[in-house]
């Protein structure tokens, strides 16, 4: 049983990692969701015990571990919240850049940085040159 | 009984207030001030709690009145209280700063309060899974805050920040459940006593997983790739919160899980920890020297500074842990001062930045000197003469480089002719100045800080070992 659980966790985690490395931001988000779900599966498999449902009064012996289920639920809820936040961010990027492709967004970033430098440069040249020169000499 | 109630306040007050403030418009000045009052109340309760903890030892309670071992335990010891107080001070200063500048988002004050609630919760918990939950509360708040002001580059940085740190959280969660699997408990004290009985070869795997998760949060050298992009793009108070308060999760987690829960595994991996710390110091300092932009320099400086904490942690023992706590406290105040000062201009702010820069470089009047001395002491105390000398030389080199880059920035930013930029509101400048004055005060009168750090290290060595 542990081997199967480990296999499932491994496959989910690996597919999540694969998606995380894609260029499409929505896929990145899906990848993160898959990875966080693999952690939930890992929690479940951390308490793999056979037994009856852990409801009082306990009948017989060997109840299943209730704690891992509580943890898994908590982790799932956190995962949902963060996934929603990430999707909102992707949407925000889409509205401003018109794309969810990582490379196109990176290209936009480069253009912005260059534009910034171009607007910066003339100001520096127009500035007090007499005061800039000695500084350049001493530095 | 009152002490048990007191432990809930530092996280409870900002949490409830955050829920209330969500319904109000945070752009209004009074709403921001209300949030600041809540943070001040949280800080006051922390100081009170610290006095109780120092006088009577660890305060402990179980949430919801459950019997011990069933419910979630809340535990306040000197280590947790110290980290919580410092983080709240930095966040409070950042919030006041942003209120003085004018808040742009209606959700800004409640998000800051939620972040503090998460931070205080995780510093004052004795339960590993509860630690994760509070950790996620503050991380999620910080993901949103990283995009504050909504410039395109800030949203991009926030996305990177969120994805990378989420991965770190997942890795940490896996580490926690692996700990649960091998020890059958989530209580940190119980885990600590049970891991001692286990074969180190099974625990070390978990230790490495948890270690990498915290290093990712701290932005140590091999895990640092996300850090410059996020700190550079962020609005100054947000950068101060991320670097001065949120990064404390990493150093606290390393101290708590490394020094408190798995000390044997930390000793096993001490060499690796110290090598990573060294790499971080050298890489951070060299990168910082080569950058021009103030926040970029300080971002790389942050990578270098956490290296000292890791170095002290690797040396271990009471001296090493004391140095690590002391350095983390001083470092988070330093970062608060320099990132806040980076957003303003004028002689008052220039003086504040100079104090912060002195503190980063470890020059005597500022508190950084105390931190550096502690690391020096730990380096000499831990290990043979050769490694001791090498570590001292390394710390000295790192300090010299940080002196260089700090004053390069100072020269460019505050000594260069002011090209008509507005200096910013006077209240914000006074605030930055008073935070720098605190740094100076701690440097001139370091006894309380040293005493607190020793108590914190004592809580690690004695409390759960």
The biggest beta sheet of chain A, please? Answer: none
In total, the number of strands of chain A is: 0
Q: What is the gyration radius of chain B calculated from CA atoms?
A: 21 Å
Distance between the terminal alpha carbons of chain B, to the nearest Å? 26 Å
Enumerate the strands of the largest sheet of chain B in spatial order, edge to edge or round the barrel: 1-2
What's the number of helices of chain A?
Answer: 5
Shape of chain B: globular
Mean pLDDT score of chain B: 89
Specify the CATH class of chain A.
Mainly Alpha
List keywords for this structure.
heterodimer; A: about 140 residues; mainly alpha; Helix Hairpins; B: about 475 residues; two-stranded antiparallel sheet; 2 strands; about 80% helix; globular
How does this model look, in words?
- The complex is a heterodimer of chains A (139) and B (465).
- Chain A is mainly α and 139 residues long.
- Chain A has a single domain, classed as Orthogonal Bundle (Helix Hairpins), CATH 1.10.287.
- Helices cover 78% and strands 0% of the residues of chain A.
- Chain A has 5 helices and no strands.
- In chain A, helix 1 runs antiparallel to helix 2 (25-46) and helix 2 (25-46) runs antiparallel to helix 3.
- The termini of chain A are far apart.
- In chain A, 20% of the residues are buried.
- By secondary structure, chain B is mostly helical.
- Chain B has one domain (2-463).
- Chain B has helices spanning 2-6, 9-21, 29-56, 78-101, 108-123, 128-146, 152-183, 188-197, 200-218, 227-233, 236-246, 248-261, 263-268, 270-290, 294-315, 317-341, 347-361, 368-381, 385-415, 426-444, 447-463, and strands spanning 59-62, 73-76.
- A two-stranded antiparallel sheet of chain B has the order 1-2.
- The interface between A and B is medium-sized, with 38 and 31 residues.
